[in-house]
Amino acid sequence: MKTRAMAKTHSGGVYFMFLLCVSDLVFGQIRYSIPEELEIGAFVGNIAEGLRISVRELSARKFQLLSDDGKQYFEVNVENGMLFVNEKIDREQLCMESSTCLMSLEIELENPLEIFPLEVEILDINDNSPIFQTSRLSLQLSELVAPGARYPLESAHDPDVGINAISTYQISSNEHFGLKIHTNNDGSKIAELLLEKPLDREQQSSFELILTAIDGGTPQRSGTAKIIISVADVNDNAPVFDHEIYRTSVLENTPKGTLVIKLIAVDLDEGGNSEFKYSFSNYAPQRVRELFKLDSESGEIRVKGLLDYEKSDVHELAVQAVDSVLHVGQAKVLVTIIDVNDNAPDIKLTSVTKMVPEDTAPGTVIAVFGVSDRDSGENGHVRCQIPMNIPFKLQTTLRNHYNLVTSDMLDRETIAFYNISISAWDAGSPSIFRNKTIFVSIFDINDNVPRFTQSSYSVYLMENNTPGASIFSVTALDPDLDKNGEVIYSILESPIRDGPAPSYFTINSKSGSIYALRSFDYEQLKNFQIKVQAQDAGSPPLSSTVMLTVIILDINDNAPLIISPLTWNSSAAVEIMPQSMYPGYLVSKVMANDADSGQNARLSYELVEATDRSLFSVGLYSGEIRTTRTFAEQDATTQSVVILVKDNGQPSLSSTVTILFSIPPNVTENTSERIDQPRHADYFSDLNIYLIIIFGSTSFIFLVTIIFLVALKCKQDRNNMRYHSSTTHCCCMRRNSNDVYNRRPAINESLNYYGAGQTLPSSETYRYTVRLSPESSKSDFLFLKACHPTLPLSDISAGDTSVR
């Protein structure tokens, strides 16, 4: 209990009053009592002590003081916990004539969320004087009225209540009249004029009295009115009602003009003295006259205004019947108002969190609200609900107070915001409902990894590309927002041949466009993989990778390279062929290689120029140069051909080779003059070197084998050698008389030509005859003579060794 007194005096500039503050924390409720009209800043109570918490917690837990009507009559200093008056309070304006004036507030604390009811009772002070509705009251009394007669007087009005309300009435001193004071059921005072001594109109026909209304406050206040009494003659009976108290009830939604009750009064006088009129007496307050209408002739009381159970559930009507000589009969009508369900529930939001992170745990409080209904009974019983298909639910805290909490995990990428409709309906019949919508926006967090549109990518890049040109673009999508959804692309370190991937490619970190930093050569690098990363700008960042396979496409950028026959400085190759050649005789073979692939490396051969085009033909794809007829005596002994080798690319590239054929008479050896000097470095490659080494080694082994076989054969048949008329005689090599030449069986071999990366089988089998000539000045082994398989074997000497 806390009490504080203040002095406030209206006269002489001195004010006196007392302040009574009561703080009580019962079942979570704090209550204070203060007088009205306190100055701004006046102390009310200590909230921290009332809540039994420390002052520091008020600020730390985000203390809030909430009122129903939104007016801030009070404020709290969070530094010391003191509750003080923020606006002057007029109890009569706030609560009118209610005996108890309570202001309901709510205290809200967070972490954890707690709500405490707070009531401040506004105590009345005597700041209003009694006032009569009219300053002049007129009465007309018959001189025949016997002593003891009472006449109701108009009541004064004092908006103060309790002890500060009207406590008594006084009348000025006289011989005939006094006052009779009555107390109503509601505690109000009424005064009746009491005739104490018979009237004598001949002695005094009128009286002027002063009626004073005095309240019980300290200091006392008063108000006055004049009573003018006229003494009349005649009539000695007043109308009498059949009931002293009438009781009835009506619904609060009763339409205007509806009959409430009919009054009945009787006057025992006869003739004109028995006539009277009904009316509301001076006791009837003004609000009753605004709600009801009394017919002066019939006595019917009908509804005049709008009845409202929530404002007042019962009305007391003071009625009277007054005859022509002002005899008054009095009665009371008690009208009970029956409540109907005419008020919709009210939803009042206390706290709302409008931005909610999507990782909010289930059970988190999003909003706090209360519901109320001004109706009574079942009509005022309110229920609430929200839609079922949302991740939120309602929790009941105090009576008619709810928390809106999350019931499931939130996902902004699925639903970015919610319009949560709170429905409140009462239990009346018919039920009345009200909706209130809460908008909740889901705040994005970085919970999605950037996803590429494909699990892997394949890029086809033409060789000899321009450095710096865009070759491809990757796309990764991140459904998050802002920085969380901003994708940054990069190329990860991964080896490509002799360097890391970033030295070959760069990527636009914003668009995902990939640019080649180098020009690629299909013949050196055909395919490789790079790893691209997509990372968002969230915290912490999330990333994913995708493999990009780059396939280099070949273009026709390499001309065919002539491998055989060998030339020096583009000069013609020289081949020796016999005059005994026959149609289809293979005189030479052009072999070429193309570093390109596919159609770009598919080679074809063409005879573009010849000394005698009728003598030679070339295989379109084999490159074999064959005779088309036998050699005639008129043919030139020196023939030249120009062979064009071209690929199948677009556009086609080509190379040419010139071959000179020498056809001397009696030539028994098909030799080709080779220049042993190496070709120009531009015509050589690693593959050519390898091929030359292989061909040289194979040829050497083959020649050694043939020489050994021929020597052995010549030794065995030295004394019985026979010479063919069209061939050269075979002679033994004179190296060693002990050399033995054995007859060897035929050897089947295939000719392997390495051109355009392929091995071509020999289309025909050729037979070569080994001949030894004593006329040779170069060596004992002269030549290998090719013999067409269609020639008769008798044309070949028995001493020949054939190799197939």
In short:
The protein has six helices and 62 strands. The protein is mostly beta strands and 804 residues long. It has seven domains: 122 residues, Immunoglobulin-like; 102 residues, Cadherins (Immunoglobulin-like), CATH 2.60.40.60; 97 residues, Sandwich (Immunoglobulin-like), CATH 2.60.40.60; 98 residues, Cadherins (Immunoglobulin-like, Sandwich), CATH 2.60.40.60; 103 residues, Sandwich (Immunoglobulin-like); 119 residues, Immunoglobulin-like, CATH 2.60.40; 115 residues, no CATH class.
- Which regions have little confidence, pLDDT < 50, spanning 5+ residues? 1-27, 667-684, 719-804
CATH superfamily of the largest domain: Cadherins
Rg from Cα: 65 Å
**Overall structural domain count:** 7
Task: Give the name of the CATH architecture of the largest domain.
Answer: Sandwich
Q: Briefly, what CATH class of the largest domain?
A: Mainly Beta
Specify the overall morphology.
Answer: rod-shaped
Mean pLDDT value:
79
Give the end-to-end Cα distance, rounded to a whole number of Å. Answer: 133 Å
| Total count of strands | 62
Fill in the CATH topology of the largest domain. Immunoglobulin-like
| Fraction in helix | under 10%
Main beta sheet: strand number and arrangement?
5 strands, mixed
Structural class: mainly beta
Question: Strand sequence of the main sheet, in spatial order?
Answer: 3-4-10-9-6
> What percent of residues are in strands?
35-45%
User: How many helical stretches?
Assistant: 6
